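Running low. Invent one:
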Amino acid sequence: MGMDLISAAGDTLSVSNSDWTFYLELGARYGWRPKGTLPPAGIQSEQWHGRYTTNESQLVDAFDAAGLAAALRRATEDPALSEKEKELVRQFSVAWGLEVHGPQDAPSLQRLIYFFNKGAFTIT
């Protein structure tokens, strides 16, 4: 099971749950300030949790997507990125109590950045 990210144009990007969590955290470490997702159809805003880590057809708006893209772009420009990714994987391993290897067959950062720069997308 994983996350399918679907753009307004219908483009889809599939990411495993653990890789998605990894990229969200990596973005936060490079300056992304999550705004919170918008609720799927049929759910009132005041009843919505705003999480990114569920696949309930919630919407990430264009502003938030651009912020995540910019943060991941900064990550690609950091000469210490590889070491920071290893540290993040180590922290996930400790927190989750299992061995985490980091993104395996995940889309590249460049592909994610390109997708997020297209604008709003839905998490399903």
